[in-house]
Design brief:
This protein is mostly helical and about 180 residues long. It is about 80% helix and about 5% strand. Helix 2 crosses helix 4 (about 80-100), helix 3 (about 60-75) packs antiparallel against helix 4 and helix 4 runs parallel beside helix 6. The termini are far apart.
């Protein structure tokens, strides 16, 4: 029963689709839908980063963010993309929890459910996946510094840049995969 409930939740959250009585699949990539999710994510996750940056200085938070970012870098060095994905998620959610709004965290989690499989599918192109997450490590370093400095605008900017740059790379990946022209 717990598996059925989990599957029902994933269907309700539109992370997966049921295309037949016994057939489930990851919701397909639709450029316009994904673009809209990215815009919403940038607003919400940027706000969560601002909230984290406006909190009193918290060395434990910046240390945890550095550890997650370092684990992501180490995973990339050995091409362990599952661990890189896990490190990225741990980094982001550590930051968002620090914003202090559990309701916001719930909404962000739902958006990650919808967009996460799209990011994960980019693993098919190992070079692209490596570049996306290697760039993410550098941007995360900027976010960590912004949090440490309590610079709300810089924290929002770094998180938004991370989300947007990944999205643009993934969009190009799907365009190439479908044979579309442009960028």
């Amino acid at each position: 029963m717990p598996v059925r409930e989990a599957v029902a939740r994933l269907i309700a959250e539109r992370a997966i689709e049921q295309s037949g009585p016994r057939t489930l699949r990851v919701a397909p990539y639709l450029a316009s839908d994904h673009e809209n999710y990215i815009r919403v994510r940038m607003q919400l996750e940027g706000y969560a980063a601002e909230r984290a940056a406006s909190a009193p200085k918290n060395p434990a938070l910046t240390d945890a963010l550095r550890r997650h970012n370092d684990s992501m870098q180490e995973a990339l060095e050995v091409r362990d993309f599952d661990a890189a994905l896990a490190g990225n998620q741990a980094f982001h959610f550590e930051l968002y929890r620090a914003g202090g709004y559990p309701q916001l965290l719930d909404i962000i989690s739902t958006l990650w459910l919808r967009t996460g499989p799209i990011v994960a599918s980019a693993r098919k192109d190992e070079g692209l996946f490596y570049r996306i997450f290697n760039n993410g490590v550098r941007i995360h370093t900027n976010a960590i510094e912004a949090i440490f400095q309590r610079d709300r605008a810089a924290a929002r900017h770094a998180i938004n840049l991370d989300i947007r740059s990944s999205h643009l790379s993934i969009r190009r990946f799907y365009q190439r995969a479908s044979g579309e022209a442009g960028g």
